[in-house]
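Box 4.2: Ligand-aware structure prediction
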Amino acid sequence: MTKMIRSPAFWRSFPIFRDFDDTAIAALAGISSYRRWRPDTVIFQRGDEGNYMAGVIVGRIKLSLTTPQGRELVLQQIEAGELFGEMALLDDRPRSAEATAQVATEGFVIAKQPFIDLVTLTPEAAPAIIRYLCSRLRGTTEQLETIALYDLNSRVARFFLGILRQIHGNELPVSANLRLSLTQSDLAEILGASRPKINRAVLAIEGLGAIRRINGIIECNIDRLQRIAEPSKL
Ligand SMILES: Nc1ncnc2c1ncn2[C@@H]1O[C@@H]2COP(=O)(O)O[C@H]2[C@H]1O
């Protein structure tokens, strides 16, 4: 695995590093170290000092906020090929959310000061980081829109369509199959609702013929999902 994080192709598979030149890529390999996190490990807490950012090679990290009463909002789930913990590193403020490994996860960390030095020396870095942060802000806007403006059936439908777009791009087929590695509790955390309510919404969507669950696979009827996702278009 350490061999893998020395390879330029590995680094360029992370969109933020795609345009880095060979020197910068070699430097990245030199300032990063391999990490392995067991399931349920809290990697950092909100408010901690942030002296590294991290990336996922295999597995899944949850970024979330938790109230003192234990209510949780999942901001994002980070999968292979994605980074997290870059904000505290870039703005010199404490961690803005908690990071937890949801499953056995392998990844790497990049120490703060060497990364800042590298960014200062790499002209491609600033535009790449700006693009990355813009895409994160767009994700947050969509999440806010979904939670604030849509009822739960629409939220679930929008969630399925979001995953299908990650797989197929914006031109979705008429129907597509999904295999989710998430439980209904995970879905409840992501969509900001209780598990029983998510269960009712999934049943309602199934009752409307937009999905069919067979042996862990979700068969999606895209047109019906889109109608539920955007009820005003009905
Ligand atoms: N709104 C958000 N959407 C997605 N990811 C976020 C959001 N806010 C914070 N994060 C990530 O959660 C991380 C928490 O630690 P950092 O603040 O260092 O960096 C943060 C980002 O990587």
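In the box above, the bound molecule is adenosine-3',5'-cyclic-monophosphate. Residues 125-149 form the longest helix (25 residues).
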